[in-house]
Amino acid sequence: MKVAIILHEGTERAESLGRAVHALLYAQEVHEAGGQVQVVLDGAGTLWVARFADPEFPYAALYRQVRDAGLIAGVCDYCAGAFGVTSQVQASGLPLVKEYQGHPSLVGLIREGYQVVVL
């Protein structure tokens, strides 16, 4: 199984934390089941980079597990700029992706056989 999880959810709404954490949990579950998984932070989801990396964040350990397993494919280059977090992304070591007009390529993921889940 191949699953791409695109996190578009920002940080401002009550349900935002649930979607962000579930993106990590779903990635970890697919990985543990032997599947291939990629997490892409796109749109307002780029704002999570700093929150995930904050050691005081309640789910920082989960984020580190997912990141260290290589499951985070990248962060949208265009959106990181639009939301003013490019320097935070660069400091995190996560790659900025820009395959289609500065954004990650949805078609590329589908052509590679990924089932796409957008949160």
What report would you give on this structure?
By secondary structure, this protein is an alpha/beta fold. The chain has one domain: DsrEFH-like (Hypothetical Protein Ychn, Chain: A). 43% of the residues lie in helices and 19% in strands. It starts with a strand and ends with a strand. The model has no long low-confidence stretch (mean pLDDT 97).
Summarize the structure.
This protein is an alpha/beta fold. The protein is globular.
Defining traits:
119 residues, alpha/beta, Hypothetical Protein Ychn, Chain: A, 6 helices, 43% helix
Mean pLDDT metric: 97
Q: What name does CATH use for the topology? A: Hypothetical Protein Ychn, Chain: A
Tally of distinct domains:
1
* Tally of separate helices: 6
Q: How much β-strand is present in the residues? A: 15-25%
Shape: globular
Quaternary state of the chains: single chain
Give the termini distance in whole angstroms.
19 Å
Q: Trace the largest sheet across and list its strands.
A: 4-3-2-1-5
CATH class: Alpha Beta
CATH superfamily: DsrEFH-like
Structural category is: alpha/beta
Task: Write the element-wise H/E pattern from the N-terminal end onward.
Answer: EHEHHEHHEHE
Which sheet architecture does the biggest sheet show? 5 strands, parallel
Layout of secondary structure:
Elements (H helix, E strand, L loop, with lengths): L1 E6 L8 H17 L3 E6 L6 H6 L6 H9 L3 E5 H6 L3 H7 L3 E2 L8 H6 L3 E4 L1
Parallel strand pairs: 1-2, 1-5, 2-3, 3-4
Helix pairs in contact: 1-3
